[in-house]
Specification:
This protein is an alpha/beta fold. The chain binds pyridoxal-5'-phosphate.
Length: 346
Amino acid sequence: MRGILIRYRHLLPLTSKTPLVSLEEGSTPLIPLDSTGKDLGIRLFAKFEGANPTGSFKDRGMVLAVAKAIEAGARGLVCASTGNTSASAAAYAARTGIPCTVLLPGGKVAMGKLAQAMVYGARVISLKGNFDRALELALEVSRELGLAVVNSVNRYRLWGQRSVAWEICDELGHPPDVVVLPVGNAGNITASWAGFVQYSRIGKIGRIPAMFGVQAEGAAPLALGKPCPEPETVATAIRIGRPVNGKKARWAVRMSGGRFLSVSDGEILDAQKRLAACEGVFAEPASCAGIAGLYRLASQNGLSTGKEYVAVLTGNGLKDTDAATSGKRPPVEVDAELKAIREVLL
Ligand SMILES: *Cc1c(COP(=O)(O)O)cnc(C)c1O
């Protein structure tokens, strides 16, 4: 499908001068989660965004943001990041030969993501502060040095991210009843909703799914309705206390007939384990907040039996193996003999 800019060019703000950048992002699998759906009494699919080139949905928006930055003559890119934005920005910067600077909240970025930013060749700066502060500084740096900010304050990022909604409808042949997403800066839930709205305006679909946004209990400003000065959660990709797109997201969720809710870190890790062990799908902790949210709702009789749900699994589990393996028993070690294996298995 050759990437988002080609597949959906008629729905994106491209001009004859926009370079058709591509790492073949998008066109990710829509995987039926039969076991989980049966458990919950719903029809459930996972949109597996971990299959994008850098392992998260950020590529959908980044490809357009970088193409537009190049079109506008930007001297480079800058972003603040909990990890996946920097991985994606660094990859598209490498692809197009534009310099990229990333500001990371010190010590709170999963190792796989940090490795990506480093190996793609970005300038990586670790800050003694949290994500919200890193973003303030990214905006200042961009003004001073003439760099394009590729965080989700960038409207092209959000526009490119609409493509997940288009793909879900194209694949199912209709809109699902409910779409559930993890929420950090709340750009993705806003963008997905805008994607459904755009599809309905051009007559591709007749209704908009209810958008459910799930936050981690320790970083739940939208679920609680107040900022969270010291966000904390194992799901580092959604460890955000002041969501940049909070206002737009509240509007989107209300208009769609959806809601925000929060789940504990324990529920997130249980959902991650269940998805991997019962479905064969390994997603990073933040991604699994959505599934944890469905379990929470099921326990409160908050799900509509028989309806069709799509959970967007935003990032690949391989990015953060520490979170996934902590507390798990390491493999048993035995002599390299058949007898020893037999003793373990029988
Ligand atoms: C960025 C990210 C999120 C949060 O998306 P927002 O647009 O900030 O709400 C969720 N999950 C993963 C894996 C991410 O990388």
